[in-house]
Amino acid sequence: MELLRSNLSRVRIPEPTNRIYKEECCISFDTPGLSNVLSCRLAPEFRAAAISVFVWQLCSFDMLELYLVLSRCVVEGFVKTSVNGKKSEGGLFVDMNSFLAFGKDFVHWNYEKTGNPVYLHIKENQKLVSEDRPSKKPTLLAIGVEGGFDNNDPVYEQSYEIVILPDYVTLPFPWVELPEKVRLAVDAIIMSVGVEKKEQVAAWTADTKIISKHAMELKQLDNGVIVPPSGWKCEKCDKTDNLWLNLTDGSILCGRRNWDGSGGNDHAVNHYNMTKYPLAVKLGTITADLEAADSDCTSKLLLLELHSSDVYSYDEDASVIDPLLAQHLQHFGIDFSSLQKTEMTTAERELDQNTNFDWNRIQESGQEVEPLFGPGYTGLVNLGNSCYLAATMQVVFSTRGFCSRYYLDQGLKMAFDTAPADPTVDLNTQLTKLAHGLLSGKYSIPATKKDDGDASQTTLTAKQEGIPPRMFKSVIAAKHPEFSTMRQQDALEFFLHLIDQVERNNSGNPNFDPARSFKFGIEERLQCSSGKVAYNKRYDYILSLNIPLHKATNKKELEDFQKLKAEKSARGEELSSDEIVRPRVPLMDCLDCFSAPEELHDFYSSALNAKTTAVKTAGLTSFPDYLVLHMRKFVLEAGWVPKKLDVYIDVPDTIDIRNMRSKGLQPGEELLPDCAAEDGGLNANEDIVGQLVSMGFQYLHCQKAAISTSNAGVEEAMNWLLNHMNDPDIDEPIGKAQKSVPYIDPSKVDTLISFGFEEEVARKALQASGGDIEKATEWIFNPPSGITNMDTTPSSSGAEVDAALPDGQGRYRLIGLVSHIGTSTHCGHYVAHIYKDGRWVIFNDDKVGVSKNPPIDMGYLYFFERIDG
């Protein structure tokens, strides 16, 4: 007791604003629950086999595989296992100063780092409950949280004690002899809701929407605006994503700017501030989520669609429901009602059959899947529509870059020692925690269940419990408007967001950045009718491919299917799933489409000083360690009806894309003049100026707009005008403005250079964006169509420019795929299949097993590993 009293100054009574962790260790997946200890011994009959595996892996110099194979002996049968039923000294230790929780193996790390000696030790024991217990009525659209749906999870009873480090002196709780400060602190911790559950409930609650007060009597202007089904662009800038349609006047404007500079440019909210038109719907969120309907009632289907569409009320400052959204969209030519009609048509029934077939095929339903356990075979618990995260992370951590960076080369101790005071908000720590959870095998053991009638006896099941990636999801989704919700998300968007955050997190030491293994350069070659060329360069992490349906290899079968479909439709009969035939398109044809010549109309040629037609081709300047291919299966048809392409992609085990290497400037080619670099300055194109003047703009302003956009076109110049009308130097004479070279902050140039851009490109981008680094980066990746030769020099080849990036000869093998089931990327389900140890493995959330029939031809994202230099 005296030891406790001497450390009372290190005990704090939690305040309402304190974050209290008591459900999960902040650097491991240990919980308060007591687990069975898995005891292992090497079986004599398997010793020779184990040694053979060791020698074979050692000779191959593949230390990663060596480690994983040796660890996986328990799975392959080299190690005999048994559950002895002995309870481990598990539980969680809650630091009574910082209120962070730690497992038994990690609490002393916290003591060494912080000096905090007093902990509340929480242990849980499973209680026996009747299997036919009544379910509670849910009050929240959630699973596994208070008020949500009851999924009959085990019920636990908790016990507590005070532990004082470093000698692990224990004191009972409750105990009347304890100091009042300690009793008050412990009571507050016990009574509080842990951060883990609080954040999950908040995420579910955040999705609850109300009907907007403006919806029923919304004023819509009769201004003749008709919105096309595609090709949208912000009316005041060049943004083509995060666009919002104002439901009063039909304006299409970009959304809010995020905390990190991403997102939009605030044009939609600024438009509201000027006009007070309150409601807007986000373009791209009006989708046909037919799987959400559990009734044949069309009105219920439509209501679900209205709820899933992203409508925002600027006046109410919240996402809302617009019950008259279909009517409001119809005002602008968007035929939302067509979604109602398709539900009962033959085409829709065919789509439903295909969806059911997808579900069974991708999840391998109806087949006996052999469960797998051990290192590299750990499942991820679905937190509620988090399968996009689970599928993506399983494939990402099967790559050497991420496995080495966050597992082999960095232990939990190293990550914790370098983490800030709260490791739960540190991306590096949480990625390391997730890597060790997935790859160590510590949590990949068969789940246990209590034997009926005997609480002391447990038996193994064929299923593992998996690990819940709560803290990782909280960090990676922090302040992101979509991933921080409990809604389904696009696995592609999440992958790109993950890579961006990892790259930022490792910016101080790019040589250790695992995101580099996915990075490559793309070079576009433009040749106008003058014969002169230009080369534009950008970096990317995925290769997004169109699917040329006209390249299908089973055209005869498709023709026969269409005839059968017409015959059965005439007789009023339905097609069975076995009769449906889908186009089969080779992956190599999709890759060829990426490099195929494409005509660009209205291209402004600086050689001709006029618009003309140019031919664009594209190639890769480097071949990354891992090549991610995105199949564009989702398209919009006329009338805004979304469609998922019903197609199989024939994917070979290996591909050779050496023919896609960009060759750079060739001997005899002449570059288009770089107008911005001409000593005599650039003269405004009078055709552009005249059209702008006819719209009511001042002649001087129009000249400046044309010059500032390199005479790219009327639309580009008008966008520049709208964004620079209030510039202090807008009325200065052009001659004076041209003589003054704008000052560029050298530190900002250095920052862009550290991102991998050339100095000349960095200066040009900063000049075009007014010195804003975020806008400059956006300008580099998405330059105006008239800007040419912006980040390659005539003497530079692609190989020289990308010398710092991973590169090889362009031969790849397929190692994984992420498949999608559903009618939209924002609904349905994602599953991963990964090639491990000479076999395909299915990762379906917490279910991990041998794949008997991997759906390789149904992938949404394909992951290839380079197998040369």
From TrEMBL:
Residues 378-867 form the USP domain. Its EC number is 3.4.19.12. PROSITE patterns: UBA, USP_1, USP_2, USP_3, ZF_UBP. The active site is at 387 (nucleophile), 829 (proton acceptor). It comes from the Eukaryota. Signal peptide: none annotated. Zn(2+) binds at residues 234, 237, 254, 267. The keyword RNA-binding does not apply. Keywords: Hydrolase, Metal-binding, Protease, Repeat, Thiol protease, Ubl conjugation pathway, Zinc, Zinc-finger. Residues 683-724, 743-783 form the UBA domain. GO terms for biological process: cell communication; protein deubiquitination; proteolysis; signaling. The keyword Hydrolase applies. PANTHER family: UBIQUITIN CARBOXYL-TERMINAL HYDROLASE (PTHR21646), UBIQUITIN CARBOXYL-TERMINAL HYDROLASE 14 (PTHR21646:SF10). This is Ubiquitin carboxyl-terminal hydrolase.
